[in-house]
Amino acid sequence: MASLLCRGILMYPPLLNYAAFLRRKSHVFYCTMSTTEAQTATQGSQSTQIKISPHRKKKGLDNILKDYEAIIGIETHVQLSTLTKAFCCCLYNYGSQPNSNICPVCMGLPGALPVLNSKVIECAVKLGLALNCKLNLKSKFDRKQYFYPDLPKGYQISQFDVPIAYGGHIDLDLPVEFGGGHRRFGITRVHMEEDAGKLLHSGNGSYSQVDLNRAGVPLLEIVSEPDMRNGIEAAEYAAEIQRLVRYLGVSNGNMQEGSLRCDVNVSVRPIGQAKFGTKVEIKNLNSFSSVNRAIDFEIARQALLLSEGQDDQIVQETRLWEEGSQKTVTMRKKEGLSDYRYFPEPDLPGVTLTKDYVDSIRNCLPELPEVKRRRYEKMGLSMQDVLFLANDVNVAEFFDATIAKGADVKLAANWIMGDIAAYMKNEKLSIDEIKLTPQELAELIASIKRGTISGKIGKEILFELMAKGGTVKGMIEEKDLVQITDPAEIEKMVDKVLLDNPKQLEQYRGGKTKLQGFFAGQVMKASKGKANPGLLNKVLLEKLNATS
Amino acid sequence: MAMASRALLLLGGATPTNHRRLLFTRGVATFSSSISLLHAKLDRVIIRCCSTSNSPSPSSSLEPPDVPRLAATARISLTPQEIEEFTPKIRQVVDWFGQLQDVELQTVEPALRADTDGDQLREDVPETFDNREALISSVPSYEEPFIKVPKVLNKESE
Ligand SMILES: [Zn+2]
Question: What percentage of residues in chain A have a pLDDT greater than 70?
């Protein structure tokens, strides 16, 4: 269910597109406000005030943005869906009673030693290969030291100078409604590390609360090259990472639960300038659309400051995306570079991969989203269809199974994207929770194609199959739904309808030919929807136009 | 350098209060005057000081410690008196370990950890730690179901 509902930006493109348009507009509006108003609007949590000089006031933001380009890189943390934590046997379940899944290892008690979960390496190799990375056959863990109450050991076990995978790329297709286009973004590295616990700040109290259930849960951090140029590209990059980890089965990729977390780096520079602008990090991005909007806001903020000559107002800092006010606000300034004092983790042996091991994983990789999309495209589906079907691995599998049963490709796509998707959305079900099987969908499509049932009846059967299950054949027999294709039988029904409606017949013959639809409806009703529509209309027309 | 930091960490671990425990005790007023906390603070500053990932200095002696900065990166507040008291002690320890810089290591393979046979991995099979009560009771400040810590808002890293 989550996978379909989480589709987010792809699922409601027209709406979002519109929202984006509105935002653009409101920026322009914002810029043309009087200076006083603009200052009021930027006050509050924002430390820098955007002053708009008179000669710039008329110039819209879009105009300003034309002169600048944004450089965007993303760090993504993917929480692995292993049963146990990375270095101890504690179970991890999102939403468990706080501090229930803990042990001396993940609490960082003296003397406790970590032992690596083999599944973590498997997931890392899978993801590394899927991201077209090179693998370090010998990598190691390092300690990253920092002090924070959600990190009981005082350091995080991570990988520093030798990550398990590096130098890859990811391919994706931008949604049609955002202009479409294929993109390839570089992947700098993928490394293994452990998650910290959860720190909750009590509202009024002078203390904070720590839940260590999440401490030690395995993560893969994916660092992208700074290849993205706007919010949509970044959001689509994140969506493709989510798709990939779900296809691979290494994570549920759920952003709301924090299983997929994106930290975004944005810098803006005048077009033509070789030197990069000041890099600003944005955190607290809980959905793809917030990735998109936060970046576009941040680009606009930085471009506006640069265009005003206020370069010094852009500082290297971490900013938080505020969903409520739809803007980024300063979280902390970076005072010099972080000093993590990395050194090799002495408590864990190095991580060695054999060629055989890597090959065995490579051979078991599923068909990945990009390959699937290209295959669907070759089958003649439109890009809109391709993106919809390949978005959710379960939907894609359902579609593949349906056409494997011989169903027409375009018809199968239409049924899945139309009535089936609508039903799933209404009932909040995922495609593997509905009772309809690919086998029966194929049978339904075939039954309509060969004329056994009408399309209208087919639709009715579909909803029963999705809700209750069963077979198309069984349902046709049980309900006597076989289409009426015998002209004599249809003639009989037409005669009766004409006889029962003498007034309308007179009007029709008097020139009100629009009434044909009324008669057709009456006959179809009399046949309980079973009359073959083509035949019905043919017979009906003959009878209506016959000079009696 | 790696050798030295490893050794220093061992040294740290051997002091009465393990630095790992600090998280839960730090900032609690009743502890601030206790000798164990002083030890612990010293401990952490030394670790910060010596486990540097910077390239080793070419000379045989190590950089003299900048105690206020080390304390800041270790998230410890030190009084001026403490800084004055710690500085020579830390310098002494650092100098002592600085002697290791004189050892000729160019031809020696780095030994980061004890070598072990096999891959030392475990299966992804859950096991419940059966003495959770003891774990919880060792937490200095616990309020069901959370561990209570001093309020911290500015996070250094994820
Ligand atoms: Zn544990």
Answer: 88
